[in-house]
Amino acid sequence: MRTTKEKDFWAATAILVATVVLMLVIVLQIERFGQIIGPFRLTHWLVWTGTIYVAIAVPIIAILKKRQPQRYKTLFRTHMFGNMLAFLLISMHFASQISRSATSYPELGTGAALYIAMVLLAGTGFLQRFQLISSIKLQSYRFIHMGSAVAFYLIIVIHILHGLHII
């Protein structure tokens, strides 16, 4: 298969492997990323960086791809790798949350739903881009990918409002 020979495939795979390894390092408590920086823990800064990137960059890149089709390839790679790195940051936060002790275990409701949406976004984006499962039609990937994006935007608003104790 041609796509597995592309350098983008191996770079994307390396980011996914790094994500899994970092999550295991956190969950197994080999290393902690809970250092306090300013008023918040490092993992909160990481998740906010990843989430803000996805929330702002995705619509901007989508608009630019339509307005500047000559830059499509560059914008698409920015979308793909930027979102995968954001997924890595968000995964580090999620791993730190689920590895907390029972006495300080968080309520995972909206956070778990948000992470599931992110996993679907990353997974369908990866599979769609590299067409690893040829029996699944491109339209099916797009449907799940776009639906996950809509879910992400809806859930992030609810998650933030819940975190701020507004709802």
Secondary-structure blueprint:
Blueprint: H1 7-27, E1 36-37, E2 40-41, H2 42-67, H3 72-98, H4 109-130, H5 138-163
Antiparallel strand pairs: 1-2
Helix pairs in contact: 1-3, 2-3, 3-4, 4-5
Explain this structure to me?
This protein is mainly α and 167 residues long. The protein has one domain. Helix content is 73%, strand content 2%. It is built from 5 helices and 2 strands. The longest helix is centred in the middle third of the chain and has 27 residues, at 72-98. The radius of gyration is 17 Å and the shape is globular.
Keywords, separated by commas or semicolons:
167 residues; 5 helices; 2% strand
> Span from first to last CA?
49 Å
Q: Count of helices? A: 5
The low-pLDDT segments are none
How many strands?
Answer: 2
In short:
By secondary structure, this protein is mostly helical.
